[in-house]
């Protein structure tokens, strides 16, 4: 199977070098974070990833959450290897990447993610090298982070160009999201965030939640919060989770799926990262040298 996959990736590369310039292209790196767990980060990461892939982007989803509801479970995928095997030198990055629905590529979660910030210089160089193999293979990297303000979450958000904060209309979700934005802005000088209001009752409810959150953040912190959009509370999404099929595939016409597609279109209009920060290497180097 791994051989098949390697062959597939080689074929993909061959196609691409015919049609695209082989010099590294800017990659959008989007971290999906929340503060509180269970608010929908993994569903957001997976379904935005699939929608962006369906729109013709080459998307890689990195599962950086070691919690229970992992990306591979949500997609019903059997995964054997992950980033820790790359760190140990047992596998190449391309060998641990699995393919999900709609051509979405996935790096499964690793307990190794926790220790990534404490890599030796050798491991560090190795992983940067491993990611550089992906240069020119990728348009968008989405990182599904863990709940809370763990060091790894901070590292991923700092290294990404875009941080999508997922909130629901509950006090704990809002205060935890605020705490995350506060730490990232006060201690790490991040100043721009995107908000996604999940499980809203109506589009207006989602918009109100955004306005409430943005007002408080912008009043007390030196940040700007943009509205990415809202996903309604949707029973089709719950059913899709049960079936281990992403809602954008299971019920493409559901309200939730439609809102993910709308947001994916919006993401495509975000400015393309320019300068060094636009390259994958910048993300990886930043990630492993962020002092955590
Ligand atoms: N828009 C939604 N509508 C209904 N239920 C949702 C929605 N988004 C998430 N959920 C429910 O919340 C649960 C947790 O979602 P998940 O994406 O795993 O959150 P997180 O990754 O933040 O922990 C899902 O299993 C699903 O049942
Ligand atoms: Mg999750």
TrEMBL record:
Tell me the Pfam families matching this sequence: ParA (PF10609)
Gene3D superfamilies noted in UniProt: P-loop containing nucleotide triphosphate hydrolases (3.40.50.300)
Q: Which SUPFAM superfamilies match?
A: P-loop containing nucleoside triphosphate hydrolases (SSF52540)
Q: What keywords were assigned to this record?
A: ATP-binding, Nucleotide-binding
Protein's name according to its UniProt entry: Site-determining protein
Record PANTHER family: CELLULOSE BIOSYNTHESIS PROTEIN BCSQ-RELATED, SEPTUM SITE-DETERMINING PROTEIN MIND HOMOLOG, CHLOROPLASTIC-RELATED
């Amino acid at each position: 199977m791994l051989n098949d996959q390697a062959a597939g990736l080689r074929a993909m590369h061959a196609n691409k070098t015919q049609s695209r310039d082989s010099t590294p292209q800017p990659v959008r790196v989007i971290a999906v974070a929340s503060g509180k767990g269970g608010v929908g980060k993994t569903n957001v990461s997976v379904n935005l990833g699939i929608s962006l892939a369906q729109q013709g982007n080459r998307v890689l989803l990195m599962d950086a959450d070691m919690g229970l509801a992992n990306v591979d479970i949500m997609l019903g995928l059997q995964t054997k290897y992950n980033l820790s095997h790359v760190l140990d030198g047992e596998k190449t990055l391309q060998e641990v990447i699995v393919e999900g629905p709609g051509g979405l590529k996935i790096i499964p979660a690793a307990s190794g993610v926790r220790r990534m910030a404490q890599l030796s210089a050798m491991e560090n160089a190795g992983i940067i090298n491993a990611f550089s193999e992906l240069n020119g293979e990728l348009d968008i990297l989405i990182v599904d982070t863990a709940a809370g303000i763990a060091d790894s979450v901070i590292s991923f958000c700092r290294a990404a160009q875009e941080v999508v904060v997922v909130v629901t209309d509950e006090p704990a979700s809002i205060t935890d999201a605020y705490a995350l934005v506060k730490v990232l802005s006060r201690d790490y000088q991040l100043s721009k965030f995107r908000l996604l209001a999940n499980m809203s009752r109506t589009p207006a409810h989602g918009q109100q939640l955004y306005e409430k959150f943005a007002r408080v953040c912008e009043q007390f912190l030196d940040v700007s919060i943009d509205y990415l959009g809202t996903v309604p509370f949707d029973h089709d999404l719950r059913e899709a989770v049960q079936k281990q099929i992403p809602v954008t595939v299971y019920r493409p016409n559901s309200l939730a799926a439609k809102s993910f597609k709308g947001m994916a279109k919006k993401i495509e209009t975000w400015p393309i990262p320019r300068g060094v920060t636009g390259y994958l290497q910048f993300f990886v180097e930043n990630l492993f040298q962020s002092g955590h």
